[in-house]
Amino acid sequence: MADVTAQGMTTGDGRLTTTDGRPLKLALAHAQSRNRRRAFLLVAPLLLFIVVTFVLPIGQMLHEAVYNDEFSTHVPELKAWFDANPAAEPDEAAYAALVADFRVAAQERTIGKIGTRLNYDYPGVLSLVKSTGRAVKGMEPPFKDALIAEDERWADPQLWSVMREASSAYTASFMLAAVDLARDKDGAITRAPEERQVYVKLFIRTFVLSGLITLICLILGFPVAHLLATLPMRWSNVLMILVLLPFWTSLLVRTTSWMVLLQGQGVVNNSLVALGLLTDDGRLPMINNQIGTVVAMTHVLLPFMILPLYSVMRPIPPSYVRAARSLGATSWTAFRRVYLPQTLPGIGAGALLVFILAVGYYITPALVGGASGQLISNLIAFHMQDSLNWSLGAALSAILLVLVLVLYWLYDRIVGIDNLKLG
Amino acid sequence: MKKLLVLTTALTGVGFAAHADITVLSWGGAYETSQVEGYNKPFTAATSTNVIMTAADNPAAPIKAMVEAGNVTVDVADVEYADAIRLCDEGLLETIDASTLPAAPDGTAATDDFLPGALTDCAVASIVFSTVFAYDSSKIPEGPTKISDFFDLEKFPGKRGLRKGAKANLEMALMADGVAAADVYAMLETPEGIDRAFAKLDTIKAETVWWEAGAQPPQLLADGEVAMTTAYNGRIFAAATAEAKPFVTVWDGQVYEYDMFVIPKGAPNLEGAMEYVKFATSTPQLAEQAKWISYGPARKSSAPLIGLFNDGKTEMAPFMPTSEANLTNALPSSYEFWADRDSELNERFNAWLAAN
User: Fold this and answer.
1) A127/B340 CB distance under 8 A
2) CA distances (Å), B35 to each of A414, B25, B198, B261, in order?
3) How far apart are CA B142 and CA B156, in angstroms?
């Protein structure tokens, strides 16, 4: 500021200007906005990258969870009838619209899409839609009687309720299905039939197992991190390599190694049998179940616990614990009241990191989890890759995302996110 | 300038080469080998078109994603019958005109030469494969002979391997429960029948290892991870014959069906894909492929041309799903049933799997 005024001049009305006569305020704003632009241009690539690779796909996924037009775009006349007759019983006009749409759909090979969409909410309707698609060609009015004569399910109010729901592209039915809920024939929300309930159970299992894995990682990782932080540099470096080497090894290699170790005829079981600790028939089932998932995931995620803990423990001066001891604290008290509180930011960071990674884990449970060790991510993959019910997959992902954000918020409220220390 | 010219020429060349290639999506493993030897190498020799093979656990799965995203990278895919019907109904496949397929050497039109049901609007069958169960005879000398033995944990203790999905498992469970093959689908149409199938699967659920890729079951048997496992019959044959594993196939209760060639809508090289499908499903090629794996050809005229396995001594006929001796208690998979009920029953299957 001093520089500018020194070189500047004062106009007749007392305002400061630069040497070339522009008002100082304007010149400064100009210079600053140029700086801001330049700063923005520097971060623009990163911003663009985040928008393109992160915000857009996640937004698209959230949208997919409540949007499915596979039914509505292929039945324009029926959709028009639903829009014109909110809450009305299906009459002859509705059945006529259905027949007209099905005739077009059968010709354009979209009848399968219509049936597939309805089948999500009304199991078994796919075959009905297809056979009706073949039959509508020769149907004569009155269409209501003709359709019901073809199959009496066309009179089922539940089916019409499902079609009404599906006739608008924006729908909550996938979000409902993702938490084992469904709509009954009056549109009220009820629990899904028992033999179809699976998602709530898997969400609970995912969170319980992730919590367990986080806990085991903490119990195993804490002493290792402490050792790393207190050993002389020469030894701690060697130890550090032992921690990092598996960290740098491919996830698939580590998971398949666990398969070799844990399987029925694997290294662990063979050794126990050779030592006489197990009989040949009594080999422990340690893979293709929850044990496999927990063991392999704990191993894979352990470095994510050790590294933040280590970075927090390293700068803690050993003199604090020594001072506490010399003032009469037992070693347990010194640990609990002096050392442990100082490591809390590392524990928080490590636990959060491990937990959030574990919640979304996919490959390891798919390979070593068998049936009982499957997590919600495996069912998301199933709907994305096999059943191709993308809306349901997206709804499950959206719920997972929300649950993780809620946990993050809770963490912030209880521990405080400022206390997080990642390294 | 000259440099630029060279560069652009090279790029165009690459462009042309890439366009002329065709990509085939199949099931990997021993089956892929048979297709490479039986179809691809002769095809490349005849037309100088390169064939690139890629593999998936189930090639039907990526097709919808590709077509709907408008990014089809596959020209030809090898899928199960029910999936071919389903994808065709959803408008995801090119139609294939059966009358353009090559006739048999004796002049019989293709439409008469193929086995019944082997030609549909969008798909051409290449082989008949079967889901069977198999065991390692070095571990179980007095082996199982009936499908009910597979579910009998008292007589034959040990782990079981099953494909992770509803298809074929439900049928086998019912047959093991004493339902005649002819009645299986009528029973599965009823809720009680489905409950009965799941109840039968319940009896071995705790002892089951679930596989997904066709290459896994022979591996599970070889590792001793399972005492017996269901598998695609050709995979067990390949492991037993080519790798001399002591695996025995039990044909009782087998579920057999066609595997189909389909062309996804928007295939990058549609013309090449059509040529490939016509070539691969011609009489000599189907017979040639059957020399590499024990899957039966879908053409009547190919059957007499099959001789020995490529080791030059194993007679193929007894290992084919369609051989008379193997059909005493066998079930043709119902594509109508699975095209319509697949998603619903798999959802139920997943819920059943997760409950414990």
Assistant:
1) yes
2) 61, 11, 36, 12
3) 10
Q: Mean pLDDT for chain B?
A: 89
Note whether A198 contacts B354, CB cutoff 8 Å: yes
Per the CB < 8 A criterion, the answer to whether A377 and A360 are in contact is: yes
User: What is the four-CA torsion angle of A229, A233, A234, A235, rounded to 10 degrees?
Assistant: -10
Distance CA A66, CA B259 (A): 36
- What end-to-end distance do the CA atoms of chain A give, in Å? 39
Segment B144-165 shows an average pLDDT of 94
Give the pairing of strands A9-10 and A16-17. Answer: antiparallel
Distance in angstroms (rounded) separating the CA atoms of residues A372 and B123: 38
d(CA A300, CA A134): 54
Q: What's the complex ipTM?
A: 0.82
Which residues are bridge partners to B259 per DSSP? B80, B127
Give yes or no for a contact between A381 and A228, defined as CB atoms under 8 angstroms apart: no
| Residue A251 CB coordination number (10 Å) | 13
pLDDT tens, residue order, chain A (423 aa): 444 444 555 656 667 777 777 888 888 888 899 989 999 999 999 999 999 999 999 999 999 999 999 899 999 999 999 999 887 788 899 999 999 999 999 888 888 889 999 998 888 898 899 889 888 888 888 899 999 988 899 999 989 989 998 999 999 999 999 999 988 878 788 898 888 889 999 999 999 999 999 999 999 999 999 999 999 989 999 999 999 998 899 999 999 999 999 988 889 999 999 999 988 888 888 888 899 999 999 999 999 999 999 999 999 998 999 999 999 999 999 999 999 999 988 998 899 999 999 999 988 999 898 888 889 999 999 998 888 889 999 999 999 999 999 988 988 887 777 766 665
What residues of A are in contact with residue B122 (Cβ under 8 Å)? none
**β-strands B247-262, B76-80 pairing:** antiparallel
Residues of B with CB below 8 A from A202's CB? 354
Question: Of all helices (H) and strands (E), which one includes residue B20?
Answer: helix B2-20
* Cα–chain center distance at A411: 18
The one-letter code for the residue type at A116 is T
E-strand spans in chain B? 22-26, 51-55, 76-80, 123-136, 160-163, 208-211, 228-232, 247-262, 296-297, 330-332
What whole-number distance in Å separates Cα of residue A45 and Cα of residue B234? Answer: 52
Facing residues of B133 across strands?
Answer: B230, B250
Q: Is A374 on the interface with B (CB under 8 A)?
A: yes
* Token duo for residue B29: 């493993």
Using the Cβ of A271 and the Cβ atoms of chain B, whether some distance falls under 8 Å is answered with no
**What's the rounded Cα separation, in Å, for the pair B83 and B81?**
5
Largest CA distance in chain A: 104
A263 touches chain B (CB under 8 A): yes
HEC letters along A284-313: CCCCCCHHHHHHHHHHHHHHHHHHHHHHHH
The DSSP symbol for B330 reads E
Quickly tell me which residue has 């009469």 as its tokens: A328
Task: Report the C-alpha gap between A310 and B159 in whole angstroms.
Answer: 44
Contact B225 A265 (CB under 8 A): yes
d(CA A174, CA A180): 10
Instruction: Give dist(CA B275, CA B73) in Å, integer.
Output: 17
Q: How far apart are CA B181 and CA B322, in angstroms?
A: 15
In DSSP terms, B262 is beta-bridged to B77, B123
Give the Å distances, CA to CA, from A415 to A212, A215, A306, B9, B356: 20, 17, 19, 63, 36
Give this prediction's pTM: 0.85
* Both tokens assigned to A211: 């919590």
